[in-house]
């Protein structure tokens, strides 16, 4: 169509030019005829016309006669339309190819303008460092989870939405240790927000059990006008729990991390999370996940199709691209399990595999549990998805893999076997390197009275390309029937400085090189002091196989 229109234009211009010039030619011929009316036409008369039939010759044409545009030149005027057609054909054929070459790059950043709502965003890593744990003076330590939660509550203007596994924020919920007061400060702030400040509080939680009756959320419902919905995963999916740890404030500020609504998560358990302030794009996408929980708490069943309002355009294939503190990021939010992921949402396990597969130099992992199994099912099943990805990365691409796995009173001895099998691959071939350390939070007789404390509860991974911060432990159950969230932040520029990824790498290396990290060369039990070891050995004989944190 374009070619046709151009040809019409060329033809029209050619006709117009001919109409303007032919009368001039006729006038010249007539004047010559008057000079010698009786003279027969001569060759000189005919030479008044350009042999191209295009235009009258002039003094200027004598130059053209010997140029490329002349009648005897290599580029006659009649070639112009053909030349244009050929140029158009070349453009039509080559432009899509050129566009395809840069399509991936352009596609990655085409939607950055859509996320201008991230322009005032501030994202920070936050931690809980257990009482008694001390790092070197030069070690990096981030803002505490406690202060972060208090800031979030105080910043709320209209809404606070929390997704939680359970609630034990007061000392009488667990054990009367003085460090419980920080949990009580947070709880009191929530009560005040709902009762006196008119803040709407919504809580989506795992269904109460005998061991976790969720008395705190019940109190918030009675005294702070909170709306509480409980999810029964046995009825929803035949098993699993709501394991997400999510805060949404005014759909503008967020917290995602490993910390439960438990005072121990503020003072007795090592936690890591992320807080994002004034990040409405991020908050609104996370809000869609919260809305999934909220709907399930009301309906009590997983719908055959999730409404379009809960779908997302932000995923591993179409990331949220934004610039923060002069650092360029590509980000997306993943969730588990698949039945709870509406259209467009990346599954949590796919987000993890994506980070491993994109790594070019290293993969560092810090999680409480690591099993290539489903460990909470009636029958234990082999689930090698992450394990295979790590082995492939180490062997196929010579990626350095490091795992920092917790060791505490509730660790299973069988975990050592799977970790050692990874270590055995080191030097099986040249430059194959997988290292494993167990992280032990120091304790004493007094602290040991606090149940289910003194553990590294982190759930993150950092590579030379991306940071992954999640809410799930790494066994198959958490990705099959348990609700969780994973947030991915990729460095989109190698020149990023002090990015989220780099900060997370610093935290990992701090812990990896700390006195609390112990090599797997020796038995875990040999790494514990003599006072603690017998007690743990005795406990292992009676430990529950259904403890989730």
TrEMBL record:
Signal sequence coordinates: none
What SMART domains does the database record attribute to this sequence? PLDc
According to the entry, every stretch annotated as the PLD phosphodiesterase domain falls at 238-265, 452-478
Q: Which residues cross the membrane?
A: 78-98
- MF terms (GO), sorted A to Z: catalytic activity
> Positions of the region Disordered?
20-41
Swiss-Prot/TrEMBL keywords:
Membrane, Transmembrane, Transmembrane helix
**Family per similarity comment:** Belongs to the phospholipase D family.
The protein's name is Phospholipase D3 isoform X2
Organism field = Fopius arisanus
